[in-house]
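Friendly challenge for the regulars: who can give me the structure tokens for this chain first? No prize, just bragging rights.
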Amino acid sequence: MDYESIDISASCNAGTECLPSEDPALGGQTMRGLPFTVGSPLGDLSVNCYISLAEGDSSATVPIGKTAHNVVFAHRQLETEQATNGPIGVHVADYVIRFEDAEAVTVPIRERYEISAVGDRQGISRYGVGYPYLAVTDQSDALIPRYEGRFDETGRRQTEVVQAQPKWYWLWAWRNPTPDRVIDSIEFVPKGPRFIVAGLTLGHVDEHPFSRAARRPVRIDLKDSEQAAKSFDLDVTIDRGERTYTHPLPEQSTDEFLSDAYKGFGEPQNPKSSPAYVELSGVPSATVGVSQGGENIDSVKWGDVESEGAVDTEKIRISLTEPGKNWVKVRVVDDDTGQIVPCRVHFRSPDGVPYQPHGHHNQVNSNLDTWHIDVGGDTRLGQVSYAYIDGTAQGWLPRGAIVDVAARGAESEPRRPRIEHAPGHQELE
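First reply, four minutes later:
Bragging rights claimed.
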């Protein structure tokens, strides 16, 4: 068991009246891929479901009796002065973690650091109530529906993602510096405005419960030839992390792309489901799931992919595609004059994952087949997205990158070289 929810209902002193008109979900819940128990395990409305405390109230104690690398708290302030320019850092409570050997660690819980109010609730304005610096929402960031949506949200849909907002609580993780010692209990000592504790979860794996790493490109190969040949309808999820849309990779091999006669003019779009790629970020215990047409195909552990580089099952192969990358400054110059040449460029990894210059889209309009095939300084020709630059650019390039350049129209010969650069190499001309 990697994470274990703790039943705190015996220590609760308040019910759902704490959150009028919010209809909070009770019982077993999943927040950011982590299990929590809010109230009784069966969600019985007749049982108190929150520890509700404010300065002057007696403290509340929850027995634990287990070891843990992390303790994750689902909690929330019910009172705040943030919306009226009140201070941050207000001392809300002390969480006292007592070990079996009687030693205790006291952690101050401060407004806008470990805890915060939820805006637009209980008469609290949504404006001026910021996210806490050390806690995260109880919901994960989400992708905007890819193939449908309101016409007046067309522009927003091109951002692809919706930033998560708290539905009911904030999640804050305490990292245990001595995970081999048994935690006897946790005492909640109120020191300021009213707050509630909805649940506790123990982390039994040595990882931070919330992903902090940058996304990494991942290649997906379907081993069943019939599934691989189906029209593209692949989706990849990760329960304890973040993801992008899934995109098909080119059908052409690297050598075929390099020798193609139509350098600078894209390549045919791959209409099939495999191979494909997605960018993922997650904690090692996260589960990566692959589905096609809404039906699950298979899943693997993200930590196995990161540690081994590739994971094979009977149905899929999931592999990291990036051996490393450098932040590179690029100059495109004319061979005859040595002058910088305005042009359109495309950068990609040997697998075909695009790495466009900083400020440009890897996919134009999320790679959808609409009339939005050019956005600002970008255009798409089949499988390939190009960025229009003034002859200079910078951004991340994978080692072994392929560059596709078309300059000055018909009077210049497009080039498509493969660039090998070592760690630390930061100039390309």
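The helical segments are 154-157, 225-229, 254-259, 302-308. Residues 325-428 form a domain with the Immunoglobulin-like fold (CATH 2.60.40). Your move, everyone else.
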